[in-house]
């Protein structure tokens, strides 16, 4: 616990933990003290975490419960260890898919998915939570996981207050407006777009040194012929960084393999540690190997050690979690001076550096190659500049002349963070939990409260305003009689209007001569037009041209207004609320057909089980009620759940699996056909490529043999195992009264969560 004697807490807090606070921190803390929801958006490194720490400390001091949620387990683990040191192990709990420790503690650290699940399934356990800290709240706009953040905000207890933290919310007003509207609560919006530690952004060319965008383009156009084989490399920049004494350096490259290759390549040419630092690194390695002896089984450990003693390392998701943890500890202690990393290193965990360099601005996003978004670039670049250490941070991008040649070379000076856009979707798990607790009317109210619907309403208001302005503009142009330069008394005598009416009359006459249409309607319209073309006012050429130009503008405005009116009408009929209601009805039909929901909306046994499952709920539930978990061996259960839990493109089986998977595929087809009948697109999957590998690990086959045969990075395989054990826990918790099955699933978990997979947990 932080002693409040060290924090002058009044309505003008200026010091906390011995640090003088910035204005935005003071504003956020005032909001917390005044029992408001607070959304704080400011750059990485400015000190958002300090505000979160204050909120935790205030809750603890007052005997109130607080939950700190993070988007990644690594950040959850880091915060848990940090809070344990401050408040004592007995006062802090951790709940993730992997671990449940002291879940009734006053300070809980959890992943966001865990909190959402508790809100639906076990609200009593969190009924007295008074502060919910949502770190990286901009994940609300994440394609796959954003719904989780929305549901937490919508379903929070009335007494609970939200503290949302993010580096990138350009549309913070929308987010705050939404929270204020759905809860009718005060909200403190704190937006500080400046950096405390300023940054300087450059491109880097090995011959030219640091350059701005214009300098790079000018140089390329002057000396285009010289760039056939010219290439800037990480070695060029590393050499420059060492010469300029701008370490530590975080070097981003979007290839795991290249992280390792580049680190080894540089370690063969450079050494940035003192003898004393080397001795410390070697001792840390020895300590880790003593405490985690299984780490020596890793094929990644030995080659990494050889670079670490030179102050050079790498970090990516393909490494074992325990190795990533070791790298983070080294980096935090400034014993790794140059770190090659993928973008995962930029999320959540606070590791600022003097310098950041991008190997490229292109990345593969799982579907195609594309340039970094503004938010991605700024998130990663935000690591540059340490508060209290650096006067400014340095950010570099290697110049890639091939990208310039292809016309695909982004200007980093134009990059801006993109606004958060809701990605809200309904899952079967959410649906059965809603049906279990709320009426249809209340569920429809839930859809109305979604951020997606709020943004839709905001967009509709903007469209209405645009239409209003366009119509006003058209009215001005149509006010012919107010034109002092026009002598026309009868508007139809105006040459422009006369010509328009005349052409219409001629067209009708031609149609009448054709004899194929309703003569009465055509003759009626011709009779209406006859008096309108009876007189013609002879204007001057200048007047005629002016009127003609005005008429063109009116015609263009009419077309634009008509198009926007159609768009507005379509948007009104097809908004998120309507889509959600339709999807709700369709999904309910599927659930009733499969026997999850009864005629009176009560949850049947399948529905109750489904309400506890968060991965491919229908497939897992159907397998349960078909007896799959009871009838098959531990290895088969683990192998099949690995294919369910890990979304990936199915490949050829990388490791032989003895179980006939056709029964899984037939079950998926059965679900897909039922969804298709009601108009739903199926999003089920099954990844068969690692089923055999997980089964082999369950049967105690050799770790290195599995990794070699399966051709999978160690960290990815651990991630597969952890996702599988998480799903096993869900199944176990969904049937607590079946003691035989519960014991079997516990055994299944223990046969995966062992040895090298469990290191560091």
Q: What is the CATH architecture assignment of the largest domain?
A: 3-Layer(aba) Sandwich
Portion in strands:
5-15%
Distance between the termini: 25 Å
Helix-strand category: alpha/beta
Number of DSSP strands? 19
Your description of this structure?
It is a single chain. The chain starts with 14 loop residues before the first strand and ends in a 9-residue tail after the last helix. The strands form four sheets. An eight-stranded mixed β-sheet has the order 6-5-7-4-8-9-3-10, with helices on both faces. A hairpin with a 4-residue loop joins strand 5 and strand 6 (100-101). The relative contact order is 0.08. It is an alpha/beta fold. Helix 4 crosses helix 5 (146-155) and helix 9 (256-267) crosses helix 11. It has four domains: 4-192, P-loop containing nucleotide triphosphate hydrolases (Rossmann fold, 3-Layer(aba) Sandwich); 198-414, P-loop containing nucleotide triphosphate hydrolases (Rossmann fold, 3-Layer(aba) Sandwich); 462-564, no CATH class; 612-758, Sec63 N-terminal domain-like fold, CATH 1.10.3380. It contains 30 helices and 19 strands.
Question: Any chance you could write out the topology, listing elements then pairs?
Answer:
Elements: E1 15-16, E2 19-20, H1 23-33, E3 37-42, H2 48-61, E4 65-70, H3 73-87, E5 92-95, E6 100-101, E7 107-111, H4 112-121, E8 129-135, H5 146-155, E9 161-166, H6 172-183, E10 187-192, E11 198-205, E12 209-211, H7 213-222, H8 234-243, E13 249-252, H9 256-267, H10 275-291, H11 301-308, E14 312-315, H12 321-332, E15 338-341, E16 355-358, E17 362-364, E18 369-371, H13 374-381, E19 392-398, H14 401-405, H15 428-437, H16 440-448, H17 451-478, H18 495-514, H19 519-529, H20 541-573, H21 576-593, H22 605-610, H23 617-625, H24 628-631, H25 634-645, H26 662-677, H27 691-698, H28 703-710, H29 714-734, H30 739-752
Helix pairs in contact: 1-2, 4-5, 9-11, 17-20, 18-19, 23-26, 25-27, 25-29, 25-30, 29-30
């Amino acid at each position: 616990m932080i002693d409040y004697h060290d924090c002058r807490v009044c309505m003008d807090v200026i010091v906390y933990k011995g640090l003088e606070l910035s204005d935005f921190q003071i504003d956020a803390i005032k909001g917390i003290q005044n029992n408001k929801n607070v959304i704080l958006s400011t750059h990485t490194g400015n000190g958002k975490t300090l505000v979160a720490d204050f909120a935790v400390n205030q809750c603890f001091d007052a005997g109130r419960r607080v939950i700190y949620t993070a988007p990644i387990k690594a950040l959850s683990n880091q915060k848990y260890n940090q809070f344990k040191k401050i408040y004592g192990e007995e006062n802090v709990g951790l709940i993730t898919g992997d671990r449940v420790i002291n879940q009734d503690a006053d300070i809980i650290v959890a992943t966001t998915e865990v909190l959402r699940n508790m809100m639906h399934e076990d609200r009593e356990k969190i009924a007295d939570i008074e502060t919910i800290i949502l770190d990286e709240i901009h994940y609300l706009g994440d394609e796959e996981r954003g719904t989780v953040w929305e549901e937490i905000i919508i379903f929070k207890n009335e007494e609970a207050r939200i503290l949302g933290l993010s580096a990138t919310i350009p549309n913070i007003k929308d987010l705050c407006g939404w929270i204020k509207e759905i809860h009718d609560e005060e909200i403190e919006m704190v937006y500080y777009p400046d950096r405390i530690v300023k940054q300087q952004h450059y491109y880097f060319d090995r011959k030219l040194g640091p350059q701005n965008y214009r300098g790079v383009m000018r140089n390329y156009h002057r000396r285009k012929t010289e760039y056939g084989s010219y290439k800037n490399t990480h070695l060029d920049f590393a050499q420059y960084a060492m010469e300029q004494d701008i370490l530590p350096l975080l070097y981003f490259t979007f290839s795991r393999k290249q992280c390792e290759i580049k680190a080894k390549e540089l370690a063969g040419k450079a050494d940035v540690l003192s003898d004393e630092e080397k001795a410390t690194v070697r001792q840390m390695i020895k300590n880790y190997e003593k405490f985690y002896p299984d780490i020596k089984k890793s094929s990644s450990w030995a080659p990494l050690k050889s670079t670490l003693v030179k102050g050079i390392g790498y970090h990516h998701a393909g490494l074992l979690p325990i190795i990533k943890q070791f790298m983070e500890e080294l980096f935090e202690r400034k014993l790794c001076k140059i770190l090659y990393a993928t973008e995962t290193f930029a999320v959540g965990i606070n590791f600022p550096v003097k310098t950041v360099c991008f190997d490229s601005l292109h990345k593969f996003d799982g579907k195609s190659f594309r340039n970094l978004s503004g938010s991605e670039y700024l998130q990663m670049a935000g690591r540059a500049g340490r508060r209290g250490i650096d006067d400014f941070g340095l950010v570099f991008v290697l110049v890639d002349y091939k990208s310039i040649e292809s016309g695909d070379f982004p200007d980093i000076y134009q990059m801006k963070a993109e606004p958060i856009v809701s990605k809200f979707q309904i899952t079967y798990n959410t649906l059965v939990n809603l049906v279990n607790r709320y009426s249809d009317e209340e569920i429809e109210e839930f859809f109305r409260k979604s951020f997606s619907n709020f943004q839709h309403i905001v967009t509709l208001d903007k469209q209405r305003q645009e239409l209003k302005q366009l119509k006003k503009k058209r009215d001005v142009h149509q006010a012919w009689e107010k034109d002092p330069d026009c002598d026309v008394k009868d508007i139809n005598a105006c040459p422009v209007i006369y010509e328009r009416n005349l052409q219409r009359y001629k067209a009708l006459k031609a149609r009448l001569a054709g004899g194929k249409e309703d003569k009465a309607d055509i003759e009626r319209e011709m009779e209406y037009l006859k008096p309108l073309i009876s007189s013609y006012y002879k204007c001057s050429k200048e007047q005629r041209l002016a009127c003609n130009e005005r008429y063109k503008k009116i015609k263009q405005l009419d077309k634009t207004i008509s198009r926007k009116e159609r768009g507005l009408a379509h948007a009104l009929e097809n908004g998120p609320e309507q889509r959600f209601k339709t999807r709700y009805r369709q999904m309910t039909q599927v659930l009733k057909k499969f026997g999850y929901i009864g005629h009176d909306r009560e949850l049947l046994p399948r529905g109750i089980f489904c309400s506890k499952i968060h991965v491919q709920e229908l497939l897992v539930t159907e397998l349960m009620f078909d007896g799959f978990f009871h009838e098959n061996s531990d290895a088969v259960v683990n192998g099949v759940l690995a294919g369910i839990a890990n979304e990936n493109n199915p490949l050829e089986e990388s490791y032989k699996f003895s179980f006939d998977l056709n029964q899984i595929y037939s079950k998926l087809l059965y679900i897909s056909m039922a969804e298709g009948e009601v108009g739903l697109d199926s999003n089920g999957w099954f990844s068969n490529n690692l089923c055999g590998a997980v089964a082999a690990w369950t049967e105690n086959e050799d770790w290195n043999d599995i990794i070699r045969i399966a051709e999978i990075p160690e960290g990815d395989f651990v991630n597969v195992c952890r996702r599988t054990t998480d799903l096993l826990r869900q199944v176990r918790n969904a049937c607590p009264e079946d003691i035989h099955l519960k014991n079997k699933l516990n055994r299944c978990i223990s046969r995966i969560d062992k040895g090298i997979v469990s290191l560091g947990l």
